[in-house]
Write a structure and sequence with these properties.
Elements: E1 23-25, E2 36-39, E3 54-55, H1 59-64, E4 93-97, H2 107-117, E5 120-124, E6 129-130, E7 136-137, E8 143-147, H3 151-158, E9 164-166, H4 176-183, E10 188-190, H5 196-199, E11 206-208, H6 212-221, H7 226-236, H8 239-254
Parallel strand pairs: 1-2, 2-3, 4-5, 5-8, 9-10, 10-11
Antiparallel strand pairs: 6-7
Helix pairs in contact: 2-6, 4-7
């Protein structure tokens, strides 16, 4: 494999080798030299134009932007700790995984759920003192903040966890935290927004609600099969499955087919994604 360093001072078309069949952007971009696709990882406001060869990261993510084409994110599970799926001490702790500084990730909701459920909480991706979005200090002693962690530490914490508490208050485009947690044998207790109902497809993989007390009850009382969670994530959200889906999209574009049909729709039929962080949670 050859890596070509992008030079931002030169036109992209001048830097694409002739032997390339298709260009895959992971940020906004285009080229007139070759067919191309763009993976959209975040949410857009509906007033921004979206390229017809955009690939979203979940079915709901695509629908929210008026599109159809999507490919689920996949991970190389050989790079992860292989979980002990027979541990009996998984009922002692839960975890939160994500950028805790983002209010839309709702780490405070996760803290409250764990407290009401009388269970310890490990926060991966956040600190007790947060100055990034105003002054926030978490006094709750049932919470252990691990900060930004590497993959090995993350896996070790999840391997001891009863489940991921993930009460986000926006339209989650995908949710790697969900698939990583499932792979480690933990169910997911989450809100019904964005891709989450797609990823947590049945009640054996977790529990979905935007009512805090219902999530508390699920964390406190429900038991799950770690092996089932692991096998589902292993077989569904792996890197090879993702690659096969992308190849299908590449072939369509190379053959001249647009991946999405962005027909004009009334504003009332599309959701303004700038307001997704205000989705109901009580």
């Amino acid at each position: 494999m050859k890596t070509i360093i992008f030079d931002s001072s030169k036109p992209i078309d001048d830097q694409i080798p002739d032997y390339i069949d298709i260009v895959h952007f992971h940020t906004n971009g285009s080229t007139e030299k070759k067919p191309y696709v763009i993976t959209k990882h975040g949410n857009n406001n509906i007033d921004k134009n979206i390229d017809p060869n955009t690939i979203f990261v979940s079915r709901k993510h695509a629908a929210n932007h008026g599109g159809e084409a999507f490919v689920y994110n996949g991970l190389d599970w050989s790079e992860y700790l292989q979980p002990n799926l027979n541990k009996s001490n998984r009922d002692e702790r839960c975890h939160f995984l994500g950028k805790a500084a983002w209010r839309l990730k709702n780490v405070q909701g996760a803290i409250n759920i764990a407290k009401k459920a009388k269970i310890e909480l490990d926060v991966l991706g956040g600190y007790r003192l947060n100055l990034k979005m105003g002054f926030r200090f978490t006094f709750d002693r049932h919470v252990k903040f691990h900060g930004m962690v590497n993959n090995a530490t993350k896996c070790k914490v999840m391997d001891q966890s009863k489940g991921l508490i993930f009460p986000v208050t926006w339209e989650e485009p995908f949710g790697l935290a969900v698939t990583e947690s499932l792979f480690m044998g933990t169910p997911v207790f989450a809100t019904p927004y964005g891709s989450l109902p797609e990823l947590i497809r049945d009640q054996d993989l977790g529990f979905i609600s935007n009512v805090e007390d219902e999530l508390v009850s699920a964390v406190r009382s429900k038991s799950y099969n770690p092996k089932y969670c692991n096998e589902y994530a292993r077989d569904t959200f792996d890197h090879l499955s993702m690659a096969k889906c992308y190849i299908e999209k590449y072939e369509s574009v190379i053959n001249g087919t647009f991946l999405n049909n962005f027909t004009p729709k009334p504003m009332s039929q599309l959701r303004n994604l700038s307001y997704f962080k205000k989705l109901p949670y009580r």
